[in-house]
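My convention is simple: the sequence line spells out the residues, with the fold written below as integer tokens. I include a record here:
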Amino acid sequence: MLTHLLIENYALIQKLDTGFSEGLTVITGETGAGKSILLGALSLILGQRADTRVLKDKSRKCIIEGSFSLSGIPIRDVFDSLDLDYDELSWFRREITPQGKSRAFINDTPVTLQVMRTLSERLIDIHSQHQSLLLGNSAFAYNVLDSYAGHIDTVNAFRAGYNQYQLLQQELRQSEEAEKSARADLDYYHYQLDELKKALPTPEEYRQMLEEAEIYRHAEEISHRLEKSVFLLQYAEPNLADTLNEIISLIRPLGRLNKAYDELASRLNSVLIESRDVASEAESLKDAVVHDPEQAALLEAKLDQVNKLLFKHHASDIDDLLATRDAFSLKIAGAVSLEEKIRELRKKVVEAEGDLQKQAEALSSARSRAIPAMEKEISEMLNELGMPGARFRVRREAAGKLTLHGTDRLDFLFTANTGATPREVSRVASGGELSRLMLSFKSMISRKNLLPTIIFDEIDTGISGETSHRVAHILHRMSHHMQVVAITHLPQIAARGTDHLLVYKTVEDGKTNTHIRKLTSDERIAEVARMLGGEKPTKAMEESAKELILNKLNN
């Protein structure tokens, strides 16, 4: 429950520091005193957005801090899932700087607004007049009925499964589109791949082809030059071999005089041997050169095909072209793997749908069992709130397909008049009737202990007379199960409070400030008397105020 609230530099509030107790806390004050400002500030530590317009003093930051007692509330798992330190007395804090920067903290750990909202939704519910509009929202109907039936965990599990089911369906649609696109291009991929496979040599083969082509192109020149080289090496008069022999015969005899001459002769002999070997290899190479125009044309045709493919695929070399070939192979393989993936996804979608159908059937059965008791309870409460002819019904029909809520379509039906046929709430209920309906729902759900705290912002609008006492009684009864805070204009509700806080304004140095303080017993009587009879209540009004408060103590 909410135990403490600190507000600094927010709207009309310079500094406000107040505590909250268990049971029913009522907040009163004159119109315009700033009661709703409290809720605006509180909403900041519940994760709502804000801007610098909330700053009273534009040169200082705004601070909102609230403490919550979490004892007995099953929320530790939420802290763990958000990787936050858990403390039975946890602090929520927001800061808004003059520059417009907002910071949020939970137990001194910086958090995002989404994290703050996730936790606060488990701690507190602020009910305003406008919330009655939710009665026309189908999602609200599911939430109320499922809360009453006590199977929220089952519903959450179903919704998680449904969301996963939708993701599977989306993935299947995307895969089918991709497969359709790939299939349209598959013939093209196969054609390109076949063309590349037939025409492309390996990098080594390509280099050999280039060399062979060069030899074919210069066959006559090669033969002529090699033949002349062999002639000069071995057959000319004189030739290189004979010349080397003559030189060796001149130098070798000098070896007896100096070893260096002998070494020189040996080196010349090595040159002679190498020249004969060179001559022999040159002759072999000359004999290997074949002038074959037909073979040369065939080789040129193959190289021309490779060059055309290089140009066609914007490839810089043979390695680039081979990479292009492999890419086409991958695209074909991808199309095949998509078919496998689609088969697997279709299987998963069918299985998920089957599981969801079973879960939806179980939800439908549970809702059907809960509806009669819920209808009876709400109708009785409306009767208690001064609407004896009111009837409330829940219409459950088959939706015909799976939705986030199962296979049911729910509508809340209502009539305030005896004998009239109940119709959709949003069509037939007046503003006051909507308020009473919403109070009935909140009162019913409070007994399920789903939330530790609820705040009513002027739930009493449009209510008077005996109905005021009944609303006060219901709020008081709700406070037995949870902490209830009610901002009210009705003395009947104000008299029921366990604690009574007064919001008031002062003017200091020409500036308006909003304050709050807890009233003493005598001050409570005076405030309730004011609410009964205006600024100058009579003695009779004071006695009536005492009686109202005394009746609260006796009931």
The CA atoms of residues 266 and 407 lie 105 Å apart. The chain has a mean pLDDT of 85. The first strand starts at residue 2 and ends at 10.
